[in-house]
Design brief:
Elements lengths: L7 E4 L2 H12 L2 E8 L2 E5 L5 E7 L12 E5 L2 H14 L2 E2 L11 E5 L5 E6 L14
Pfam family, one: Glyoxalase_6
Protein name: Catechol 2,3-dioxygenase-like lactoylglutathione lyase family enzyme
Organism: Pseudonocardia alni
């Protein structure tokens, strides 16, 4: 039976990406599921949560698929955006925010965009161009 696995992010620097995403999401880098072109991040129970694959292509400025990281409050969103910034994420120059967005668009150290979504304000009103 076919089933959905886990998201995979293409990155230029596997070690840097593994360090960032492991710290960002409180995950572990699995030695069992590693190769020169691949890293797997696992959760507390050892479940595979996120894959990182070496990619020579640049990140897409407006990807059709991206990660949404969820928080429950605006205060938590602000704190997580600051924490992710301290780990190397940057605010994306996003032009598609609605008037009162529930999300903040960031980029990981490789330039892959992702969102931090405040569930207390979700969903955003109609976004011009949608979320990330």
């Amino acid at each position: 039976m076919l089933r959905l696995g886990f998201p995979v992010v293409g990155v230029a620097d596997l070690d840097r990406a593994a360090a960032f995403w492991a710290a960002a999401l409180h995950l572990q880098v699995s030695e069992e599921w590693a190769s020169p072109s691949w890293r797997t991040l696992t959760g507390p129970g050892g479940d595979r949560v996120l894959g990182l694959m070496h990619s020579a292509s640049p990140p897409e400025p407006r990807p059709r698929l991206h990660l949404d990281l969820l928080v429950d409050t605006t205060d938590e969103q602000e704190a997580e955006v600051a924490r992710l910034g301290s780990l190397g994420a940057t605010l994306s120059d996003w032009d598609g925010y609605p008037a009162e967005p529930d999300f903040v668009v960031l980029a990981d150290p490789d330039g892959n965009v992702f969102c931090v979504v405040d569930l207390s304000r979700a969903p955003s009103s109609e976004a011009v161009g949608g979320g990330a």
